[in-house]
Design goal:
single chain; 261 residues; seven-stranded mixed beta sheet; 12 helices; globular
């Protein structure tokens, strides 16, 4: 049975399918296909077009970062933790050595209905809050790690342990992770679409440096709602989104950080 935290995967899946159908922000035919078959019963704010635009932009930004890193280091292993039913493996066209999509076993069970493993693509059923599985991955000199939409459901200790396991396994790694701030976590208790699937975030990050260690260093912040993607909207939608989801207040709630090993 799927945990409530796992059910949140249907919110970005719906959002990516919606923007793809509209022909803006993110082209994701796989999301369209999977959503048509799964049709998980979302309602209310979970099916907000504004949230869909935001989810599409977040995915597009991370795709772009990953493509850039792979073009620089094509020999890297890609580790996508908390993959859900996301089609990043198909959207990102840059070459890679190995790609591992990781999520809870019950999520991977559903995922295998839509994706097939190959020699260089594998799916791995494991929890991000437990790190033993990291040591079981094939060894590599370099890794590129994506954590999208999961840090807020972990504890600070769990994130630090996961980073430490990655640093222990891979001599060189680049990590991208989106986070809620503590303000966003507090606000989520009252108003957040994920409440509709029975989940709530518990961890907010106000200082990107809290994950730094001797091996792990903060390397930067990436704009989540980039101008070029906002400009794919038009009229009222563009103005409203820019004001409500890309303004100063929104930026005080959500961040994308990058780290290096």
């Amino acid at each position: 049975m799927m945990k409530n935290e796992s059910k949140t995967l249907y919110i970005p899946l719906y959002g990516k399918a919606l923007v793809s159908r509209k022909g803006v922000i993110l082209r994701d035919k796989k999301a369209e296909e999977i959503w048509e078959k799964e049709k998980f019963p979302l309602g209310g704010k979970s099916k907000s077009k504004w949230l869909a635009y935001f989810m599409g932009m977040r995915a597009s930004v991370i795709d772009g970062w990953l493509s850039e890193k792979l073009s620089e280091k094509p020999e890297s292993v890609v580790l996508h933790i908390g993959c859900g039913l996301d089609s990043r493996i198909e959207r990102v066209k840059a070459p890679f050595e190995k790609w591992f999509d990781v999520d809870f076993p019950e999520v991977i069970e559903v995922r295998k209905k839509y994706y097939s493993e190959t020699l260089n693509y594998k799916m791995f059923g494991a929890s991000a809050s437990e790190t033993e599985w990291v040591s079981e991955l094939p060894g590599a000199e370099k890794a590129i790690v994506v954590l999208e939409g999961i840090s807020m459901y972990l504890s600070e200790t769990a994130v630090k342990n996961l980073f430490a396991a990655i640093a222990e396994k891979f001599p060189e790694a680049e990590i991208i992770m989106d986070v809620y701030t503590s303000k966003a976590v507090r606000a989520s208790r009252y108003k957040n679409p994920i409440k509709e699937v029975g989940a709530l975030p518990s961890f907010g990050v106000d200082d990107a440096l809290i994950f730094e260690t001797e091996k792990i260093k903060f390397s930067g912040e990436i704009e989540m709602t980039q101008e070029e993607k906002i400009n794919e909207l038009s009229g009222f939608e563009k103005t409203f989104f820019k004001t409500m989801f890309a303004g100063k207040f929104a930026k005080s709630l959500y961040k994308i950080y990058t780290y290096k090993v």
